[in-house]
Amino acid sequence: MRNKWLLIFGFVSLVTLIACSNNNKANNGEWTPEEQIEILAPAGAGSGWDTTARMVTKIFEEEGMIEQDIGVVNKPGGGGAVGWAYVAEKAGNPHHLFIASPPLIDVPLNGQSQYDHTDFTPIANVIADYGAFAVRADSKWKNLNDLFEDMKEDPSSVTIVGASSPGSMDHIQFVKIAKEAGVDIKKIKYVSEQDGGTLTALLNGSVDVYSTGVAETIEQAKAGKIKVLGVTSEERLEGEVISEYPTVKEQGIDSNFVNWRGFFAPPNIDGNAVDYYVSKFKELNESDEWKEIRKQYGWDEMFMYGEEYKDFLDEQQEEAKQLLDELGVLKNK
């Protein structure tokens, strides 16, 4: 009987000790994930969101930056809206993250989602990607000026295809550059192909120009099937194939477009969890392994968090409002 009571006393003491330890962790402002972390890519496999999420997860796990298991899941639909609705339901749960970029600003403004960046918890921006405008290798257009000269005469004679919805990123990045070149942007013919058929449409002649991200052009440019007329970065990018892509600016068009990509959490998560994730993304950003990934995909460093990130997102929203209003597709003002 005496041994039984000693065992019970020992067990109670151990539970108390663990509870005190956990309380001390909370009091010290520390937080670590207690279950698998889910990172959502609100698009299909192979998309820019998906690729970035998987590369981040790869470094986190292989370099031991995060010990807890991480799973990447895809929830395509609505230009991102399906995924955002899913994350919004996880309010207060710090074991969920999602990757986002300009569509989180654009899609709500054009009325296709009830959620925008203000409905979530910004963690950190990690990269800057850029737009690329590609045509078939045998296209008559040798550069953007050739293309825009034809479009200035008749904007609707050229069909642009992109993977994002009308009024979202692939559409907006093309429109922004075309506007600076003097094209009547209200008459531009844009086709949205969200089921992975963008490149097929370009190669079979159904459309004329493919508005996409730089990384999505590399393999086809290597194979000699497409040529890139211009990219939206300030300066030429470094890397195999992409270093040959001319910038918009070097063709005399004074404009650019940055496809920022960052990570968000559900609304109302604990500040200690935010601090944890920010510290991990800082570690990622400073690692040599991540620098190699950026180089491989032609991504630039664009690391932000906290108030700087929030202010940046608000500024992006104001800029998008003006352009969407001019296009006549602004719904949420």
Automatic annotation (TrEMBL):
Tree of life domain: Bacteria
Tagged with keyword Coiled coil: yes
Assigned keywords, A-Z: Coiled coil, Signal
InterPro entries: BUG, Bug_dom1
Keyword Lipid metabolism (UniProt): no
Database matches in PROSITE patterns: PROKAR_LIPOPROTEIN (PS51257)
SUPFAM superfamilies xref list: Periplasmic binding protein-like II
Chain segments annotated as coiled-coil in the UniProt record: 306-333
PANTHER family noted in UniProt: TRICARBOXYLATE-BINDING PROTEIN, UPF0065 PROTEIN YFLP
Pfam families on file: TctC
Signal peptide coordinates: 1-21
Protein name: Tricarboxylic transport TctC
Organism from which the protein derives: Virgibacillus pantothenticus
Family: Belongs to the UPF0065 (bug) family.
